[in-house]
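Extended Data, panel c. Modelled sequence:
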Amino acid sequence: MALAEIVDTTALWQTIVAALVTGIGVTLAFSIAVFGIARFVELGRDGRSVAAAGFGAVAAVALIACAGAVVVGVIVMTQK
């Protein structure tokens, strides 16, 4: 009995790659959100409102991406 008959290696590798890509992607998006929020606060205190608004927008987009990843993950887990 071959190992390939017991374990679907293609599906296993797809799961491993998807987990790595998603884990790195969500971590990167959240770190960009933290960076954007920190710069938003710092630039806002310095009175540079245009630059602060830009970093606020970056933070908002990154947070939306994180929330979207959570929603997609829940949908994938709850479907058969």
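The first helix runs from residue 3 to 6. This feature is highlighted in the accompanying rendering.
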